[in-house]
């Protein structure tokens, strides 16, 4: 739809011009003005694509009105309408950028031909503006992606042996800055995936209310790093301002993303690019200190650097990762590995040599435990050691899934098989080795799997089964303690009495 303004002090001229235009060009909207002053006001309000302007009008004439309109709207196309065919008029209108004019009285062809030419030009200009808008939008998107990759490279890839100086970062990163990390976890029981792009758009928009300059990195393992650059005003109360912005982002996001649990960790301020990796690790450590979802934690509030230096290797987390992988607990692998890797990064500080050494030790332990389990799983340990954390995590989940399938083949769970065998043979002097052989696992691995899955050791479970059966027999009052002892699998009545007393107290 094109907008056309007709300006003439003669009503009959305006009506005649309107009829000719609408008959030939139905896709136009037309407004009218009866003098130069009204034309200027109408042009501001109506924003026409084309103006038919009469030259000779009382008050502000057509030429003066064109000058004023062109100042406000340089792109508007003007066709002058005049009854005077003089060079002076032509010269004046050419000065203000008018290229077309028609003489009164005009034929239909004399009106429609220049208008058709002008509308074609208007359409070309609109297409050009549209292309420029798309180009600018694509440029902004591309710039955002580049910035995202740079931030990710700065904070994460540098952790894998790439020196920050090799990344050819822009000088404008060399400012007082800190890193915050937004963690998004699916709520328990939620099936649908997190819309990462929508979440990142929300973070991008929300942080704009608090900070003048900030850059989002790429999402990795449910975490989005954000590099915040501080103005002089923002430097004064970094902790207070960071916690306030983080908590507000969480609170608002809680209602917008009902299937997601958000938490934020915040690192300290540094003014050197090389040290921003430390701020990133501090943000991860602050996240690990969060005891519940929807928490916003600042690094300095929770830890002294000595707490996670070389003296505190995360042995417990390492053990937990190995247990969840080798026992086929697929759902827990990613979470435990993420915690382990964060703690490992803090332990290694910025030493890639130590990181590679510890990952190598981890994979040696994993290979050994898988071999002991009797499960056939192969992976290239040396190649995997050099992969980013997300690739290692995915591989561990894959290994765990394979083990899980092995243990649940034909829908028969190893733990269920073991318990069934114990329930059927508790009267005999059964051993851990005997049950392990029944479920086709090594004794050492079966012991670990049983304890991990049943939350108690093999001997504790066997004892509980035997004592429960003994209680049933005691209630019947048909057998002596000695007879009951032999009936539930014990050979020594005195030992049986001590076990029963430890479990339930004295015989009643």
UniProtKB/TrEMBL annotation:
<dbReference type="InterPro" id="IPR011006">
    <property type="entry name" value="CheY-like_superfamily"/>
</dbReference>
<dbReference type="Pfam" id="PF17853">
    <property type="entry name" value="GGDEF_2"/>
</dbReference>
<keyword id="KW-0238">DNA-binding</keyword>
<keyword id="KW-0597">Phosphoprotein</keyword>
<dbReference type="Pfam" id="PF00072">
    <property type="entry name" value="Response_reg"/>
</dbReference>
<dbReference type="InterPro" id="IPR009057">
    <property type="entry name" value="Homeodomain-like_sf"/>
</dbReference>
<protein>
    <submittedName>
        <fullName>Helix-turn-helix</fullName>
    </submittedName>
</protein>
<feature type="domain" description="Response regulatory">
    <location>
        <begin position="3"/>
        <end position="119"/>
    </location>
</feature>
<feature type="domain" description="HTH araC/xylS-type">
    <location>
        <begin position="416"/>
        <end position="508"/>
    </location>
</feature>
<keyword id="KW-0805">Transcription regulation</keyword>
<dbReference type="InterPro" id="IPR001789">
    <property type="entry name" value="Sig_transdc_resp-reg_receiver"/>
</dbReference>
<dbReference type="InterPro" id="IPR018060">
    <property type="entry name" value="HTH_AraC"/>
</dbReference>
<dbReference type="Pfam" id="PF12833">
    <property type="entry name" value="HTH_18"/>
</dbReference>
<keyword id="KW-0963">Cytoplasm</keyword>
<feature type="modified residue" description="4-aspartylphosphate">
    <location>
        <position position="54"/>
    </location>
</feature>
<dbReference type="InterPro" id="IPR051552">
    <property type="entry name" value="HptR"/>
</dbReference>
<dbReference type="GO" id="GO:0000160">
    <property type="term" value="P:phosphorelay signal transduction system"/>
</dbReference>
<dbReference type="GO" id="GO:0003700">
    <property type="term" value="F:DNA-binding transcription factor activity"/>
</dbReference>
<keyword id="KW-0804">Transcription</keyword>
<dbReference type="GO" id="GO:0043565">
    <property type="term" value="F:sequence-specific DNA binding"/>
</dbReference>
<keyword id="KW-0902">Two-component regulatory system</keyword>
<dbReference type="InterPro" id="IPR041522">
    <property type="entry name" value="CdaR_GGDEF"/>
</dbReference>
<dbReference type="GO" id="GO:0005737">
    <property type="term" value="C:cytoplasm"/>
</dbReference>
